[in-house]
Amino acid sequence: MASYWRAASFLLMGNKHFTKHGYTRASKSFDNSCMERSLAGRVCIVTGANAGLGFTCSQELARRGATLYMVCRSEERGRQALEKVRADSGNSDVHLAVCDVSSLASVASFAANWLASSRPCHLLVNNAGVLLNERLTTPEGQEQSFATNALGTAALTQRLMPALLAGAPSRVIFVSSGGMYTERLHLDDLQHSSLQPWDGSAAYARDKRRQVAMAEHLTAAMPGQGVSFFSMHPGWSDTEGVASSIPGFHKAFRDKLRDTQQGVDTTLWLALEDEVKLQPGAFYLDRSPQIKHLTLGGTQYSPQQAADLWRKLMQMAGLPEQAGPAAAADGAAQQ
Q: How far is residue 328's CA from residue 164's CA, in Å, rounded to a whole number?
């Protein structure tokens, strides 16, 4: 019964707040004073950067002068996106990094090369994500949506922690989803084996809930270290991924969906706004912290459960379980 209540409440909330109309209403109170700040000298990483929200985010960061690394799974599509971002922004300090976030080996290789370069990282945008209409398994044996949205994202964040600490004050943004409201924090079924028959939307929502918990846990585990963690919902945005993964939803809400500029607005704001005006660990929509659980939704969890999630993910990734400077150094040594 709780799941039906959550689904109904989610749709009602989404229809009011997650559409382009919700963005228009919210934007009337925006303070845009930070939005054209220069990012010159700031090193930024965006995963899933060749299409959709990741591509638009890359364009906007590059336009503001960032030293940008676009992390893409496909070298061909990544190269095309890179050339367009460089041309559109006039910024030649934009680079392609080929990495499949669903692969722990690929993540480890990318991170090892990054740390070997001694480059800091001032901003990590964990944008890469998939919503699959069938259960798929990676060559490493992980369910692919979990491997991309949760495991690989966590492993990348942990492996890059030395660079984030070197770049402090730095920020990590998990591009989550309002779909997380429909799911509780599943700790005993990380790879969605209970979803029989397969439900790609539920798997996606569970992993997006996990991203919110990751931001909470890392905020609690690393106080005063100079790295801030946030999760956010881009709203219901019109991307190729949405159209192909959930075509029924896309068709039903096509006229209400946000464009990608509206979808990345909060990500950019979180990257640009003064630190003192932000709430680390919060879940943002339209530049404002949001509730993380629907009333009577039954999705609440404890800080210990969020910590348990991180511990399990680190165990699966073969990384130190404890977030922080010492764990980051250990993780670097395990490359």
A: 10
For residue 121 the two structure tokens come to 């990282």
Does the residue 29 lie in any domain? no
Give the pLDDT band of residue 334 (cuts 50, 70, 90).
low
- pLDDT category, 3, cuts 50, 70, 90? confident
Residue with tokens 């997650």: 18
Q: What is the dihedral of CA 222, 64, 53, 23, to 10 degrees?
A: 90
Domain count, the chain: 1
Which has the closest alpha carbon to 3: 305, 296, 300? Answer: 296
The pLDDT tens digits for 13-34 are: 999 999 999 999 999 999 999 9
Active-site residue, 69 included: no
Specify if 109 maps to a domain: yes
Residue 241, helix vs strand vs coil:
helix
What one-letter code names the amino acid at 193? S
Range of the domain at 225: 2-11+42-333
Residue of 212, 202, 201 whose CA lies nearest to 289? 212
Question: Does the structure show a pLDDT above 60 at 150?
Answer: yes
Specify the residue for token string 């991309």.
148
CATH assignment at residue 191: 3.40.50.720
Provide φ and ψ at 143, rounded to 5°.
-60, 130
173 contacts 335 by C-beta, under 8 angstroms: no
Dihedral of CA 334/117/227/142: which sign? Answer: negative
Helix 75-89 to helix 52-63 angle (10° resolution) is 40
- C-alpha span between 131 and 135 (Å, rounded): 10
As given in the structure block, the two tokens for residue 79 are 């190269």
What integer pLDDT is reported at residue 5 of this predicted model? 86
Check 23, 181, 204, 301 and give the catalytic one.
204
Mean pLDDT of 313-323: 93
Report yes or no on 75 lying in a domain. yes
